[in-house]
Design brief:
With about 220 residues, this protein is α+β, with helices and mostly antiparallel strands. Helix content is about 15%, strand content about 35%. The protein has one domain: Pseudouridine synthase, CATH 3.30.2350.10. Strands 1, 2, 3, 4, 5, 6, 7, 8, 9, 10 and 11 form an eleven-stranded mixed β-sheet that branches.
Length: about 220
């Protein structure tokens, strides 16, 4: 891939990319190049990881170019002032066309988010809003707005209401996608610029894949 073609936004403080599915945000146990590796080659300087996105998912990933920008964005995440909107393709539509989900999640030894209850001291509260914004023959498209940012949150919470994400066999979808991706896309991110204070919105275009492209959405 040409990493330069994936740049969504850049200035002296930050740089954002539209991550393709299958590419890790940062180095892992594999020997594969990560988005961070490629981004640092592109920028010819070190970058700071602000947030993460699951390897099989696609969409907006934002990096900081210095520690001051990193601290500012970390504080926004902590304050929950950053708005993150995802798109998810599911085969089973939810019972209600829109709703608010609250679960308690903990991460098990198999790197999976498990639904628990509030009495479990290791479980963290997970909240999101969803609404159905599109339908084609076999699938529904959900817009998901995160309120908290827990490990595998969207994947686990949608699976908990019998709506596993297309391709996500880890959370109950019957069949994986051929490229091992899942149909989860970090679509929009809105944050405050660390210097100007200006509200900035990033939008990652839908992947060039048949099912994604079958949904016509206004960006």
């Amino acid at each position: 891939m040409n990493i330069g073609d994936s740049v969504l936004y850049k200035n002296n403080q930050l740089i954002a990319f539209s991550k393709p599915a299958g590419l890790g945000v940062q180095p892992d146990k594999s020997s594969d190049k990560s988005l961070l590796d490629l981004a640092e080659i592109y920028c010819k300087s070190p970058l700071q990881v602000i947030h993460r996105l699951d390897r099989p998912a696609s969409g907006v990933v934002l990096f900081a170019k210095n520690k001051k920008a990193l601290a500012h964005l970390n504080q926004q995440f902590k304050n929950r002032s950053i708005e993150k909107v995802y798109l998810a393709v599911v085969k089973n539509p939810p019972e209600k066309p829109e709703g608010h989900l609250i679960h308690y999640l903990y991460k098990n030894t198999n790197n999976k988010a498990i639904i628990s209850d509030a009495s479990n001291s290791s479980a963290k509260k997970a909240e999101l809003n969803y609404k159905v914004i599109g339908k084609i023959d076999n699938y529904s498209l959900l817009e998901v707005q995160l309120i908290t940012g827990r490990f595998h949150q969207i994947r686990a919470q949608l699976a908990a209401i019998a709506c596993p994400i297309k391709g996500d066999v880890k959370y109950g979808f019957r069949r994986g996608n051929r490229d091992r991706s899942i149909h989860l896309h970090a679509w929009k991110m809105t944050f405050e610029h660390p210097v100007s204070g200006e509200k900035t919105q990033l939008v990652a275009p839908l992947p060039e894949e048949t099912v994604w492209q079958a949904f016509r959405i206004d960006e």
